[in-house]
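Title: Prediction job returns without error message
Component: structure pipeline
Severity: low
Priority: P3
Assignee: unassigned

Description:
Job completed but the reporter wants confirmation the result is attached to the right record. Sequence as submitted:
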Amino acid sequence: MLHRLKYLPLAAAIAMAGGCAATGDSAKTNASLAPQASLTNTYWKLTQLDGAAVTMAPQQEREVRITLAGDGKVTGFTGCNRVMGGYTLAGTALRFTQLAGTRMACPPPLMQLESAVLANLNSVTGYRLEGEQLILLKDGAPVARFESVYL
């Protein structure tokens, strides 16, 4: 029995080295496969609009967001009001259609944000997914950037 125990540290060292090597290889493989959120049925929070960072104002009720349902409908919040409508998708071409919203009045900064969000949504001609980010494009140029939120 004592004879077998003297090899135990050697066996443990080999197992640990093998485990580290496997972890290193799999970490390299997994790092190249960045998570990819789905365009549809994902809660997308606005982080940039026309290249400028978007943060919540103190009086803002909730963050600006959109969700594209699998059935061609879009819902969201534009900073002041809820928005709903449709979208069409063909490859990476994306267009929002028949956008409508509630009509609550909000402080001027939120109304300006809402106007800018709606103008950008109405101008979208395509999209690109980069991991957990959705970039909305107008003729190939980014107009809005969203990040996926897992609830």
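Comment from assignee: result matches the submitted record. The first helix runs from residue 2 to 5.
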